[in-house]
Amino acid sequence: IAIDEANKIKDPKQRLDSLKVASEKVIASCKYNLMTRDILIKATKDISKIEDIAKQADILRTGLLEVLVILTFKPRVEAPVPAGFPAPSPVGVVEIKKLPVYRMAKVNNGGAGGNNFFTLFNHIKKNNIEMTAPVEMTMTEKNGKYTESSMAFLYQETTLGKVGPQGNIAVLDTKECMVASIGMRGSPSSENIESAKRWLIEKIKNAPEAYEIAGELKVMGYNSPFMPEKLRYYEVQLPLKLPTK
Fold first, then answer.
1. Residue 190: Cβ-neighbour burial (10 angstroms; 0-12, 13-18, 19+)
2. Cα torsion angle, 142, 94, 203, 26, sign
3. 94 in Cβ contact with 188 (< 8 Å)
4. Is the N end or the C end of the chain the one with fewer CB atoms within 10 Å?
5. pTM of the predicted model, to two decimals?
6. Long-range CB contacts (within 8 A, 24+) of 3-10
7. How far is CA 243 from the centre of its chain?
8. Are 91 and 73 in contact (CB under 8 A)?
9. Inter-axis angle of helices 34-47 and 190-206, to 10 degrees?
10. Residue 66: helix, strand or coil by DSSP?
11. Model confidence over 45-80: pLDDT tens digits?
């Protein structure tokens, strides 16, 4: 509504002032959404570098439109989730949540993501295991670039199948654990993963509990490759533990 009302204002200064009020309200009311906060803070810094008031209004309006998309985004979960799995985290919001014990089929092969997917797909098809979401991808960082070091399909129940090696696939049960998780949209590019990691670490540092990072960064993908990129949803997670006393 604020964006639409601002569009009707002809005077650039009044339009900019109206958008500034909207931006301040969003930041105040969405203080837990670190993504929207940073988008609007960046827009505010960008407009301080130019003198053209009309262009300033356009920059802030663009930022607010991006925020609008984030705040109204609804994840499309295309498959059942494992039993006891927590709900997906909202886009831009970091949550500390508990993951239950779950069974997964995992394959490592140095980052050939396409091969990983179809190797696992053939495995669940052969064993009559239903496809679930999310797909778990462990990421390795080198020189600012993230690559997939392993991929896992999660079973809906720990009673399905049996643990142990099956060719180059390992079927194993996880342990119950805490994670810091943030919802993301689009594609898990290195740039997006790095931003997500920065927000996760900020949340961990400011959490009341003295959590420590306890494992590798993971991307949890909820959509198939056939979903349009702008509609895709994934989470970036860091495993946590409390320090040993």
1. middle
2. positive
3. no
4. C
5. 0.92
6. 3/61, 3/64, 3/65, 3/68, 6/57, 6/61, 7/61
7. 26
8. yes
9. 110
10. helix
11. 999 999 999 999 999 999 999 999 999 999 999 999
Q: Dump pLDDT digits (tens) for 186-236.
A: 999 999 999 999 999 999 999 999 999 999 999 999 998 889 999 999 999
Asked if residues 150 and 210 have their Cβ atoms less than 8 Å apart, the reply is no
Residue 7 to residues 15, 17, 62, 229: CA-CA distances in angstroms?
Answer: 7, 12, 12, 29
Pair 57, 19: CB distance under 8 Å: yes
Count the helices and strands in the chain (H runs, E runs). 6, 10
Rounded distance between C-alpha atoms, residue 235 and residue 115, angstroms: 22
pLDDT tens string 138-174: 999 988 899 999 999 999 999 999 999 999 999 999 9
Taken as a whole, the chain contains a residue count of: 245
